[in-house]
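As practice, study what follows.
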Amino acid sequence: MPDIDRQYPIGKFVPKETYTAEEIKALIDTIEALPKKLESVLYSLTPAKLEQPYRPGGWTARQVIHHLADSHMNSYIRCKWMLTEETPVIKTYNEKAWAETPEVNADPALSLAIIKALHAKWCVLLRALTGTDLNKAFIHPETQRQVRFDRLIALYAWHSEHHLAHLKLIADCRL
């Protein structure tokens, strides 16, 4: 399997110009489903596989799971900013550096617990959004581009499946 397939096993994220209400619901369903899917994959991984990267130079399964918690917490906060501030400029974070902080060596079940609680709360928030809310946006400081709420939802539905696919590559030993 070529490196690009291991790096982007479900393909790169390609946002749509607009999303229908049905598409938004399906995207939220994908976000909501991550904790159960992640739990299933996590408990299929041996201790050795937790330390295995999904591709040469890629993160280990342990790092991917901790990254999902970190990234999705950041996204949840961005959602709250969009709902409470007028087109806020968000704060970015260095995800590669975050994947190497000391707690990443801890049991990934800790991050699974965060993801379970976070996704439950996050999906309540996402399902309550109005059409007006979905058009709200934040400004990314590195690109100076606005990112609308609907695209953020699509991105994190993709992000959930993207990293789940990385973990499945490791679990299935298809490296």
